[in-house]
Write a structure and sequence with these properties.
single chain; 318 residues; alpha/beta; Protocatechuate 4,5-dioxygenase, Chain B; nine-stranded mixed sheet; 11 strands
Length: 318
């Protein structure tokens, strides 16, 4: 039987993957980002952010993020996992493609976008062909078991057998290989959890999903040491420290009643903030084990409070 032995959670994105000097370029784009109202953010931003957006402060935060990731990568290596179920969301969705709330990719291998120094642009075409592609292993048998079992548990999970020619899993998933798995080709089962409205699960539904996911992992007849990864979060591109701290407190305490009551409206102020749902799902699967917070870093890039709440955490059962 399979055993759920470990879980990790990490922010991803350009704040981690690029030098602090690039944060300034991101801040310049924020002024014109149509996904939020920059001028309204500027008018309501808390005072004192001038000190947070100096290049010295950005370098300090960036350095701490690299240390936090290194610590997380070391704990992943120590966990000796056979396969990871990576919970995240596709960043580029074509309007003509189905966009399920929950989906699992079942394949023995798939193409991934290689993490590069290029600043990620979510508005870029979904297919960039194989220019920066790499092939990574999947675990189709585990994926099949999860699809069957979760549907029996009344979760309508979409089944994706293969990606369209030229398409790749984006950096939400490939981030794990470069930054978390120390370059090891550990098989993964990509679990897609939509962050987009209107097809976005509530926090309470994600808690139920996490509990069902654990039960199905433990019912799987394959002799696998299984790990979970929540890739993404916390609040971004609008940084909400208060929300991040509320989430972290709930994850550390295992307070699922409090987490289930998170404001959906507040979760959707920042386009990337709903990736917090990935963390909530993993936390529910790992209960009663509580999250060990490695670090939280409010990485501002403008006085309008745009930026990224970077966080790293893990769950290690006794």
């Amino acid at each position: 039987m399979s055993e759920l032995v470990f879980a990790a959670a990490s922010s991803h994105g350009p704040t981690i993957q690029n030098q602090p000097e690039s944060w300034v370029k991101l801040a310049e784009k924020d002024v014109y980002d149509r996904r939020f109202n920059y001028q309204e953010l500027l008018a309501s931003a808390k005072p004192g952010l001038d000190a947070e957006v100096t290049i010295e402060r950005m370098r300090e935060r960036h350095g701490a993020a690299q240390r936090g990731l290194a610590t997380l990568a070391d704990r992943i290596k120590q966990a000796d996992v056979d396969v990871f179920i990576v919970i995240s969301n596709a960043h580029r969705i074509r309007k003509t493609d189905p966009h399920p709330v929950f989906g699992i990719l079942r394949s023995e291998q798939f193409a991934m976008a290689e993490v590069t120094g290029t600043i990620f642009d979510p508005r870029a075409p979904q297919s960039e062909k194989a220019r920066d592609a790499m092939t990574m292993p999947g675990q189709a048998a585990l994926a099949n078991h999860l699809i069957d079992g979760l549907i029996d548990d009344c979760f309508d999970v979409a089944c994706i057998d293969q990606l369209a020619d030229g398409d790749m899993l984006d950096e939400a998933f490939s981030f794990c290989y470069k930054w978390m798995f120390s370059g090891e080709a550990i098989p993964i089962v990509p679990f897609l959890l939509s962050r987009d409205l209107p097809n976005q699960a509530t926090p309470g539904r994600c808690i139920a999903l996490g509990r069902a996911l654990r039960a199905q992992i433990e019912a799987c007849p394959l002799p696998l040491r299984v790990g979970l990864v929540a890739s993404g979060g916390l609040s971004h591109q609008v940084l909400d420290e208060e929300l991040d701290q509320q989430v972290i407190k709930g994850l550390k305490a295992g307070d699922f009643d409090g987490l289930s009551k998170l404001s959906r409206k507040r979760l959707n102020i920042g386009p990337g903030t709903p990736e917090i749902l990935n963390w909530i799902t993993v936390a529910a699967a790992m209960a009663p084990t509580k999250m060990d917070l490695i670090d939280y870093l409010p990485c501002y890039r403008s006085v309008a409070s745009t930026g990224h709440g970077i966080a790293f955490g893990c769950w290690t059962p006794n």
